[in-house]
Structure formats: structure tokens, C-alpha cells
Design goal:
The protein is mainly alpha-helical. The protein folds into 2 domains: about 55 residues, no CATH class; about 55 residues. Helix content is about 45%, strand content about 10%. The protein has 1 helix and 2 strands; from the N terminus they run ββα.
Length: about 110
């Protein structure tokens, strides 16, 4: 079951320090069934905190797209930095191994 709410003034939802809450009571216990046991569930009610809402407009869609791009770019930069750090570490280890080998050959 999915319930959608369409607020007339979405910017007024959960504006205070405490988020607004939606409390749902089911008067017919046959609406909720446990999928494992098949028994009806007695519910005292469901309480859901409502996050702040945004108006669906082209501006918020652009903001959402920019946030997605920034998130992807940040993840990519971190991954590239890790790969570079690991490759430099491996390169440094190989260089020191080569220098040690040259020292051993020079000693011999």
C-alpha cells in the first residue's frame, strides 16, 4: 500500500525545530498481514516524521541535477586520488627495489 500526500503549501511542512508527524490508524486489522505467518497484525498506529518538502519547479530540478553531478564528481575525484596514491606507492617501492639491486651489484 502506498499513500501519497500532495501539500497545498509544501514549504510550510516541518518548518519548526521538530518535524511534523503523520499518525495513521487502521480500524480494520485485516488490512495488515504478516507475510511470514499469514496472521493479521494488530497495530497501535504508525507514526511517520515528515521531512521538509520542496516545490517541484524547474529550479529545484536543476538544483537536484547539480547536486547529483557534484556528488558523482566528488566520488570520481576520490577514486582517482586513491588510484594515484596506490600507483605512486607501488612505483616508489619498485624504484627502491631497483636502487637496492644496483647497490648489491655495485658491492659485488
Amino acid at each position: 500500500m502506498v499513500i501519497n500526500f500532495d501539500f497545498d503549501y509544501p514549504l510550510e511542512v516541518s518548518r519548526g525545530a521538530q518535524p511534523d508527524k503523520i499518525v495513521a490508524f487502521f480500524t480494520d486489522p485485516r488490512l495488515l498481514m504478516d507475510p511470514v505467518s499469514g496472521m493479521f497484525i494488530q497495530s497501535n498506529g504508525i507514526v511517520i516524521e515528515v521531512p521538509q518538502q520542496f516545490i517541484k519547479s524547474p529550479g529545484t530540478e536543476v538544483l537536484k541535477a547539480v547536486c547529483n553531478v557534484a556528488s558523482t564528481a566528488t566520488g570520481t575525484v576520490l577514486l582517482v586520488a586513491i588510484v594515484i596514491a596506490l600507483s605512486l606507492t607501488a612505483l616508489t617501492k619498485s624504484v627502491w627495489t631497483f636502487i637496492n639491486m644496483v647497490q648489491v651489484l655495485a658491492y659485488l
